[in-house]
Design brief:
Belongs to the glycosyl hydrolase 43 family. By secondary structure, this protein is mainly beta. It has one domain (13-306): Tachylectin-2, Chain A. It is built from 2 helices and 21 strands. It has helices at residues 89-93, 318-323, and strands at residues 13-20, 23-29, 35-41, 53-57, 66-76, 79-87, 100-106, 116-121, 130-138, 141-148, 158-166, 169-178, 192-200, 203-210, 218-225, 237-238, 253-262, 268-275, 291-296, 298-299, 305-306. The strands form 6 sheets. It has a 4-stranded antiparallel beta sheet, with no helix packed on it. Strand 11 and strand 12 form a beta hairpin.
Amino acid sequence: MTQWPNPLIEQRADPFILRYQDRYYFIASVPEYDRLELRCADTIVGLVEAESVVVWRKPDIGPMSALIWAPEIHHIDGQWVIYFAAAPMRDIKEGLFQHRMYALTCDDADPLNGNWQERGRIRTPIDSFALDATTFRHQDKQWYLWAQKDPAIPGNSNLYLAELENPWTLKGKPVMLSRPEYEWECAGFSVNEGPAVVRHGNRLFVSYSASATDENYCLGLLWIDVNDDPMQPAQWNKSARPVFTTSWENRQYGPGHNSFTVDEAGNDLLVYHARNYTEIEGDPLWDPNRHTRIKAIRWDANGMPDFGAPSADTLLNQRAVNSQ
């Protein structure tokens, strides 16, 4: 399929699509930031009409009682895992963002109807604002990649990598892969967050989001040779320019917080959110219209990804497309 409905799913930010055993699983931030929902379908377009099943709701009090952000679902060694960020309600009421990362696991075959168990907070060496974790398998190890603030470093968040002992426990000392340093990473806020991993050829790529969540939001890119040691920051390359940015021509603003998946033929796809307007009343955090969108990735002759520009909204009838 070359023409995707755009947006694919409305009012779902920080989208993540996992293809597992020829089925697609979708999870994202909901506008209320109060629950985790899963969808499943045989096709990507089928996710549009798929039932949203709530697998977890935040408690009223405690460290996971507010602003449930940017969940991801993974299947690791026969077990389903959901990572998400959450904060205490008491701190939100005081104007503080004290997010930490948490994990849920499910041992049942069907994650939409299985029993999910809280595994608690994922502990890192620094007790500080942390969010946007992902995981991937590389060099026969399971890795954990996330964003976190180091109080000793100016800015909101940097990107860190560590090996996992199990899906909710780090193994060894993390390393910092990237921090906001370019002007395009520091527009509004100095941010590196939302990392996502894709492999192509002999390189491993990490995309990430930068700057404030308005029209300045954009994607940066890191990459490393697949045979190099990912725990050696000096072996990582970093693009000096953003690789996916606002398109004023297509009226797509602040594209970011992406994930990667493949279509039914195995072609790489970029999954991301963007708004189609810039006039936001109040805090952009509470504007619900960051919609889930997808587009094909083109790989150039040098094996580098070309994300192009975020596609303009279409007038496709999603129900009609879904029935074809």
